[in-house]
Amino acid sequence: MRLKTHGVFILICMLSLSPLSFAHQISDTVERLAEIGPAPDIDLIAQDGKRFSLRDARGKVVAVSFTFTRCADVCPMLTSNLVSVQRKLGDRFGADVYFVTISMDPATDNPDVLQRYAEAMGCDLRGWSLLTGSEEQIQEVARNYGIFRKLRANGEVDHTLLTSIIDRAGTTRVQYIGSRFDTDEFLHDLNLLVDEDRTE
After folding, report:
1. Residue 190, domain extent
2. What total of structural domains would you count in the chain?
3. Across the chain, how many H-helices and E-strands are there?
4. Whole-prediction pTM value?
5. Parallel, antiparallel or unpaired: strands 162-166 and 171-177
6. What is the CATH number of the domain that holds 72?
7. 135 φ, ψ to 5°?
8. What is the pLDDT of residue 154?
């Protein structure tokens, strides 16, 4: 088992708050990502103003991340890493792999703001949905995914940077903490799940 972590404090928060565990299990003969558990559903509004549910991406490998557009440091780094992976996926992106990014700042991040952010960051919206909703909806999704989220008095948002990879059947298989994870390893895990679900 390997843990993808960045920061001891974040790891402690995740272990205490998240109903999910972290798994990246490799056997001696066949590499296989362990099954963590069913991924909580998501039902929010995308950058195009349409409702998006995690069920809409069933049949694809899905990476779910949490950021917000006013974040000036780690969130853009995370998004940039995901864009890098998006490009390396080539034709698999959108067809076999789908990215979902959920805003932790729904008061600011309406669909128009998310659309502009996606365009500025290079997100390919043919295979990527950026989501927002009411404060209550976002708090519920954060809680379901084990995300620590706290609104500061100055309007900033403290939150865990957690990215979950979900297989075609809707099961969470591996989670990465932080923004500085190994993008090649992340890409490997995505491709592993695409190929696994085609051959089993």
Report:
1. 8-199
2. 1
3. 6, 10
4. 0.83
5. antiparallel
6. 3.40.30.10
7. -55, -40
8. 74
